[in-house]
Amino acid sequence: MLSSVSALMKTTAARLSALYLLLFAICALGLVFYMGSLTMRMLESQIQDTVSEEVQSLGRAYQRGGLTTLVRVVEGRSRQPGAYLYTIADPTGRILGGNVESIETAVLSTEGWTERPFAYQRYGEIDARSGDMPDARQGPHMAMAIVMRLPNQMILLVGRDLGEPERFGNVIRRALAVAFGMMGFGALVIWFLVGRRALRRIDNISEASRRIMAGDLSRRLPVTGGGDEFDRLSQNLNEMLARIAALNEGLKQVSDNIAHDLKTPLTRLRNRAEAALAKDNQPQHRRALEATIAESDQLIRTFNAILMISRLESGYSAEHTQAIDLAAIVADVVELYEPAAEEVGVTLFADAPDEFPITGNRELIGQALSNIVDNAIKYSAGSNEGTVVKVTAARDGATIAIRVTDTGPGISEQDRSRATERFVRLEQSRTQPGSGLGLSLAKAVMTFHGGRLELSGENPGLCVSMIFPAGDSQG
Amino acid sequence: MKLLVIEDDREAAEYLEKAFDEAGHQAHLAADGETGFALASSGDYDVLVVDRMLPRRDGLSVVAGLRARGNDTPVLILSALGEVDDRVTGLRAGGDDYLTKPYAFSELLARVEVLKRRGGTKDVETIYRAGDLELDRLSHSVRRAGKEIVLQPREFRLLEYLMRHTGQVVTRTMLLENVWDYHFDPQTNVIDVHISRLRSKIEKGFDSAVLHTVRGAGYMLKA
């Protein structure tokens, strides 16, 4: 699960989801703040309106009965429960009446509307705080107010508590938290669903392309028919594959034609030499004709090997394979070469105790192994007494390896990778007959079977390993 | 022996006609698939030699068509293709043997002669004889002049194949195909060494040679 989550995090869908989540969060935050401040402003202007009305009504009381009436009205209203604040203070800011016990002194010294909400303390609040009032923890009250100077230089403050807007702010904050929670959860769900879906489809495409790379050019990428970008990608890749397949087919056709066109004259050449040889009794001519036939045979052999390598490299096809036993092939080849090895003083023996079943082509593996064994015998012959070539088959984890180990001169480290290239014949082997294609063909056979050819061993001595994937040869 | 060669390369066809004639066989020629199919259907041939790539009708289709009509004349398919499993495809289409171009005429001749005798009495015989050499297929024993000769299993199969075609030339590739069941070109002298081992066992201590080397072609067992 952890690994699948970390794999999910690596996907484009997950990154996009995260990016979208961030963008939406920023937008939502901005929107909420805008709405919040808009609402606050509306509430504030409402407060200003109601406070102005209150001031007007107080003004009327002042006109009716002067300062005394005003003070009485203020005192009377102060005792009524409500959100209004009243304060009468002397010019120095000392509070003389009203329902406010303490206030920031700066508020009283500036006439007109307070620029921002200010903290204040109502009468009775301090006593109440020691009791168990529910709002005791809410800290000082905030309010907005208008400050006026009466004709006798006394200060009158009329304001309104901001309790309601504060509650509103709390609601907005809670809503914001809930919205963020839901958005995050939604993003995670979408992330997971979209990410997993995308991951699965990309996995399908990867799997299909892996099989195509393994050589099955007839295979195509999956197209769901939904017409989305994955489908368009697959369709484009499929068209590309179709073109590659067509080119490949063309190439194959050309090589078929070349094979046919060149082999026919080669056949004639060989035939004529053969026909001439049947009639000619002069030893000199016979030798020349025999050499001609031998040369053309070598040419033909090389040609066949090149064609075979190309065919094998063009890919694996299941129709040429079946269930076979590698140990049986090892036994066959060793049995076939044993007398020839003995003839040149080489002891050839097999060590393949088990059955090693794989899916493959017996002919091709037999031929590849023959080439390797043939090389091993050729290069270790005559090097010293008691020369041994050993052919083993063994399971090694997920692979089955056939190893041909000789005690010949071996191949130096730097030459090993070149040894399997076409026509490469290392300096020391120039004197030996052969086309230089034996190991290349063996390598192509291994590629065909989804395996590989490895050269190892310390000098002197060489170990050539044919490494097959165990079980499924396509693996 | 009467042969039909279906081959579009005129020079190769004429060469084959002449070469078969020199070997004592009569060869008819057809230059395309349709003509070949018509001739093969009507004529009474011992063996057909069919090129795989032919104008008008593909060689494999000619063979498949003949087989579909119940014509079971032995067919040897010639091919210049280099497919991984051409041979199998050719034999699946109804061919009896398969030879890749270019080939030695001696190889073709040996294979055609062996094909002609196909389906003879050799299949049911349990004891093969060549002079004083005797091979019992049931008891897996070999005797010469009444004396038991001990052979390895592969040597026994080698001798069995040679004796089955007593008096006929068998090539190295035919031996590799029929005794080892591999169809690649062994390149080196691996078969020759097997033959010489077998030869020393069945000839050493006896007064005459029975396993002969046919120069430029292969081997022949003959008393």
Describe what this molecule looks like in 3D.
The complex is a heterodimer of chains A (475) and B (223). By secondary structure, chain A is α+β, with helices and mostly antiparallel strands. Chain A folds into three domains: 2-172, Beta-Lactamase (2-Layer Sandwich); 229-313, Orthogonal Bundle (Helix Hairpins), CATH 1.10.287; 318-469, Histidine kinase-like ATPase, C-terminal domain (Heat Shock Protein 90, 2-Layer Sandwich), CATH 3.30.565. Helix content of chain A is 57%, strand content 17%. In chain A, strands 1, 2, 3, 4, 5, 6 and 7 form a seven-stranded antiparallel sheet that branches. In chain A, strands 9-11-12-14-13 form a five-stranded mixed sheet. A two-stranded antiparallel ribbon of chain A has the order 8-10. In chain A, β11 and β12 form a beta hairpin. In chain A, α2 (12-79) packs antiparallel against α5 and α6 (229-279) runs antiparallel to α7 (283-313). The longest helix of chain A is centred in the first third of the chain and has 68 residues, at 12-79. Chain A is rod-shaped and about 160 Å long. Mean pLDDT of chain A is 78; it is low at 126-137. Chain B is an alpha/beta fold and 223 residues long. Chain B has two domains: 2-116, Rossmann fold; 122-221, Orthogonal Bundle (Arc Repressor Mutant, subunit A). Chain B contains eight helices and twelve strands. A five-stranded parallel sheet of chain B has the order 2-1-3-4-5, sandwiched between helices. In chain B, α2 packs parallel to α3 (59-68). The longest helix of chain B is centred in the last third of the chain and has 14 residues, at 190-203. The radius of gyration of chain B is 19 Å and the shape is elongated. Chain B starts with a strand and ends with a strand. The model of chain B has no long low-confidence stretch (mean pLDDT 86).
